[in-house]
Known about the structure:
Number of strands: 15
Structural class: alpha/beta
Shape: flat
Distance between the termini: 32 Å
Strand content: 5-15%
Amino acid sequence: MSNLIQAAKDQVASLTQAAYERAAAEGVLPAGAQVKATIEIPKDVKNGDYASSFAMAGAKAMHMAPRAIAQAIVDHMDLAGSFFDRVEIAGPGFLNFTLGAKWYGQVLADIEAEGKDYGRSDEGRGEKIMVEFVSANPTGPMHMGNARGGVLGDSLANVLEWTGYDTWKEFYVNDAGNQIAKFAKSIDARYRQLLLGEGAVEFPEDGYHGDDIRELAQGFRAREGDGWLDRSEEERQEAMAQYGLSVNIPRMKADLKRYNIEYDQWFFESELHTSGYVEETVGLLAEKGWTYEKDGALWLNTTALLKAKYLREGKTQEQVDKLDLKDDVLRRHNGFYTYFAADIAYHRNKLEKRGFDKAINIWGADHHGHVARLQAALDGLGLDGSHRLVVVLMQLVNLMQDGKPVRMSKRSGKAIALHDLLDEISVDAARYFFNSRSASTPLDFDLDLAVRQDSDNPVYYVQYAHARICSLLSRLAEEGDRVPSAAEVDAALLSTAEEKALLKTLSQLPEELRLASRDYDPSHVNRYLVDLAGDFHRFYNACRIKGEAPALLGARLKLADAVRAVLAVGLGIIGVSAPEKM
């Protein structure tokens, strides 16, 4: 698939090299110079569309002044059949290239040819990547961090798929360990309180105090009756845990589906324990000499693993020795494996058993200290966790209304959960806003702005551009003005500053997707869409379409239709609809 920005840069390089070789053959420039030039896009179009540093970069090797080299290059430049109309010398010797009609026409041709696949590439070459995201404890409703992580993970997986990776979306269900034991005890206490009275049953201090636990206890009693008081605590709490999970996990799936998120797999932590995979993984670490016993527990020598990791990454021994490193328990004295042991096993399952080339996790920033430890443990298993495990750390979300933080739902009086948020604003607004900043940036989510229907609301602004074009095309079609094919368009007619700016922005989607994939940052797409919508609105206000001469009308109609198609592609990648009417 095309990337006309990269194609133009490649052509600048080849045209410049060919001109140099012609000049050298004539003896104007010294032959055999190996020049590594940069090719940039100037911020000011007065400096051309692409600028090469060839003359400055070659000055030392050629023992000549850069401007003299630049002049020789320009004198021997052949732009015939290229993307460029002219090349000029600027400043100390920059070669400034200006795009011509061939390149602008190619933008329209590529968008037409690639259609709904515009912007796709094979950058990833089919590399198998798992994106694991949300993975909230199934002990209560999903919160705002989960809401942001859901959009970031889903959009990132879409970007990676678009750029040629074989992607897999996964939710890791923490249905084992301390959190579930606490969950079961909490439901059990509320169940016994229903039967014996609140004063007769002490609620665990570290239990879950939310109303959702009371509702689960009531649901369990309604389904199972009052007879569970006679069962053992262990049997009762096992049943409570299974009942609570049977209610909460489908709710999570429903909330996420409403949010336009569906997974390839929901992976259950409990399966790692029941299959013996956690025990096997810890055994492998022991075999490799990375564990030791102390106080009846089995420990991972995390300190040694981290030191080895940091030394490989270039830290000095002195720097490593100053770090405050600690070891981790893998198996407690009671024989139970820790969450960290299960996490190592889960990631071994990803990289070794299921053969993913890379595992990408979207985690809250509070997990920062866990990243290097897990990577080091995977290194210890020979799985190159330092390179194959990528963790995108996500900063907090602040919900804002009337300029103030909002933590409670006005309707329920409880902490705002994902389903509460989606009762207040559209899924499109939620997805767009949560993906509007890179994960490393804290996000202020303005609820007032998210529901506004004006140009201050970025999702409305972008969707309105799409709907505006659909209406325009429909009106003109009724009058007999159809959208021509790219081959029928004379791109030289699209000559105003607004038209050229719009065509350049259209060409940028493949490059923006490449950067989003490289940086694991799907917010590139949001920023691109706002830029494209803005350039379209400026074009539409400056350049008349209806009533123009047929050739110009057709060219501008084709340009508008290309914007419509690319807006729809970009919105689709981030899971936002492209309405035809608003």
